[in-house]
Amino acid sequence: MSTVALSNWSGSRTIAGALVEPTSLADAAEAVARSRHVRATGSRHSFNDVTDSAETLISLRHLAYRHPRLTATSGEDVPPPAVEPELDEATGRVRVSSSTRYADLALYLHDRGRSLPNFASLPHISVAGSLATATHGSGVGNPILAAQLSAVELIDADGGTRLLEDEELDGARVSLGALGLVTSMALETVSAFEVAQTVYGPVPFDAVVEGFEEISRLGYSVSCFTTLREDVFESVWVKRAGTELDAPWPSEVAGTPAMDEPFHPIPGVDPANATAQLGEAGPSWDRLPHFRADHMPSAGEEIQCEYLVPRQHAAEALRALRGLAEPLAGLVQVAEVRSVAADTAWLSPMHRQDCVAFHFTLVRDTARVAAVLPAVDAAFAPYDGRPHWGKVTAADPARVRALYPRREDFLELAARLDPDGKFRNDFVRRWVG
Question: What is the pTM of this model?
């Protein structure tokens, strides 16, 4: 076991714990059994203390599948593709090791004529961590990525193996790492499909507020980006799929025509790392994310914050977003607004309700960002806004806990699987109980 200064993806915080990197499931089980406290760490794309451990941090990166195409172009010091996914042709389900990144899984599926129904903005994040924190993409009909889950295999506190499915699955979809060390999961796939995206902008802010329902239904996935520097959304990204591709593209969105050259979500940034636009169709895995799998994602040096607001409050929450222009001046790189469909996961912010996500990419200035987080929470709390499990927030934990009607059921499941709380940390205790 080695103690290392392990930073998160953007370098905004250091993750607490002593790192263990087993090269087999047997070694992982032994590490879990001998430790008093264990948390998993993956692509480290969280911005809070969700993965912090009082003792042991376990990374299963040596068991991750890496697609040869990405391994050859990434230039990273990566282990070989030790555990290849397994696709069941009869059911369409794929079994994948937990530390595998979405980009690698997507290419594996593409080679076999399959795809996942949706993807997050970044393809560089690990599958298990994304599911555990209710990470999502966009689209009025698209739920969180964990909705694709059909089974979870994990190592329990004693080092044994457990398979969670059926009645336990909705508790395990969004687990915050509190149920055990997840080693693999089975996901539902669909036939491979193509997506094309066209970017419009700038669109007046009022036009998005008043026409949000219509705008958010222009495609399979729609994202609206604003820097809050002017009273506009600098860009609206419309991603169409399937039969939508047969219909003519809208000539304009709220009076604003399509852009005639590629655009980055953050105005002024080179769009080279953004996925192809201008209505050029391509595989879903290479269009639904905003960023290319073979390039550095997003802006890099940043802190992220996000609130999920029940869809019936969309207009009020959009106006609240506009009201943050002054508090966030000089701090916000870009804010993204998108739709997320309801799901059944007990700890999902979208549990049994459609939501609108308000995501902020902020400059990497921890003190200044912390000072404005209360203003962000005050903007969305009146509309039952729930903070994303992997982002920074100044929300009142008691308020947040009260918004999850199946929270007690999750705690009962966690107590049954891990009675001594080996996998629970301060984050879980603070936000769930």
Answer: 0.95
